[in-house]
Amino acid sequence: MNVACVEGVGVWASRLPGWDAAREILRGERGAPEARAPRPAPELLAPTERRRAPDTVAVALEVASRACESAARDPKHLPSVFASTHGDLAITHAICDTLARSPALTSPTKFHNSVLNAAAGYWTIGTGCLEPYTAVSGHEHTFGKGLFEAVVQVASERAAVLFVAYDIECAGPVVTMAPSQGLLGMALVLAPENSSHTKARVRWELRGSTAPQPTAARAANAALVAGNAMAPCLPLLEALADGKARSICVIVAPQLVIDIHVEP
C-alpha cells in the first residue's frame, strides 16, 4: 500500500468550530454546542476583504490556515488541491436570479467569486503562494476524488500537499438539483512517509469495486453535518480523531474506491 503522513488538520462546521473541539466531539467525549457558530473570519484576508468574501472562501481559507499552522508549514511553499462539489451555490443562485430578472445588472464581482477555483485563488494570493493548485469537482464523489488527487501528488512528487475540501448551503431553485445544507470545511497537510511532523499515517490503495460501499460516520456525528455535500469527509475525520488504528473506504467513482488504513 501507498503511504501518506498527516501533518496537520483543519476543520470547521457550525457545530464543529475547529479541530480541537471537533476531535473531542467526534470521539464522543463532549457534546456538540447547541448554538451554531457564526461563519469563520479568516485572518489571512484584510478586514474589508474578510467581510466581502463569500462563504466558500471564508470556510476554505479558515481550515487551510489551521491545517498549515498545525503542520508548522509555510503555506507559500505548499502545492494544493481544493475540492468542492458545487462551488458557491449562494452566488450561483444570485446570478441566475439576476439573469432571469435583470440581466444587465449581473455583478462582475459575483461572477468572479462563482468559479470553482475562487477559494484557491484567494488562498494563493493571500499567502503569496506560487506553487501549483488543482481545483476538483466530482458531484457526489468529490471528496474521494479530491483526496485521491492529493495523495497521488504526494506519492508522485515526494512532497507535501495541502488538501482542502468544502461545501456550503444551497438556496433557491438550484437546491432541487444541487442540495447542500450548512457550511463544512476540512483540510489536511499530507506529506511523504519520511515526514518529521507526522500526526498520523494513512496507508491507501485504489481498487475496483462493482458496488462500492463507503464507510458510514457514526450517527451522532453524521447529524452534525447532515445534508452538506462534503459530509463524506466525516469518516476520515473520525478516524483521525480516534487516535487509534482504523480502516475506512472512500468512493472515488462508481466503480473505484480508496481503501484507507489510518495509523496513529
What does this structure look like?
The protein is of the alpha+beta class and 264 residues long. The protein has helices at 19-26, 47-52, 55-71, 89-101, 108-114, 118-127, 142-157, 219-222, 234-242, and strands at 2-13, 16-17, 80-83, 133-136, 161-167, 184-191, 200-208, 246-253, 256-263. It has one domain (6-199): 3-Layer(aba) Sandwich (Peroxisomal Thiolase, Chain A, domain 1). The chain is built from 9 helices and 9 strands. Strands 1, 2, 3, 4, 5, 6, 7, 8 and 9 form a 9-stranded mixed sheet that branches. It is globular. The two termini are 17 Å apart. The model has no long low-confidence stretch (mean pLDDT 92).
N- to C-terminal distance: 17 Å
How many domains in all? 1
Q: Strand share of the residues?
A: 15-25%
Number of strands: 9
Topology order in helix (H) and strand (E) letters:
EEHHHEHHHEHEEEHHEE
Average pLDDT level = 92
The largest β sheet comes out as: 9 strands, mixed
Helix and strand composition category: alpha+beta
Helix content: 25-40%
For this structure, the CATH topology is Peroxisomal Thiolase, Chain A, domain 1
Observed structural traits:
alpha+beta, Peroxisomal Thiolase, Chain A, domain 1, 264 residues, globular, 9 strands, 9 helices, nine-stranded mixed β-sheet
What layout of secondary structure does this protein have?
Layout: E1 2-13, E2 16-17, H1 19-26, H2 47-52, H3 55-71, E3 80-83, H4 89-101, H5 108-114, H6 118-127, E4 133-136, H7 142-157, E5 161-167, E6 184-191, E7 200-208, H8 219-222, H9 234-242, E8 246-253, E9 256-263
Parallel strand pairs: 3-4, 3-5
Antiparallel strand pairs: 1-2, 1-6, 1-7, 5-6, 7-9, 8-9
Helix pairs in contact: 1-9, 3-6, 4-5
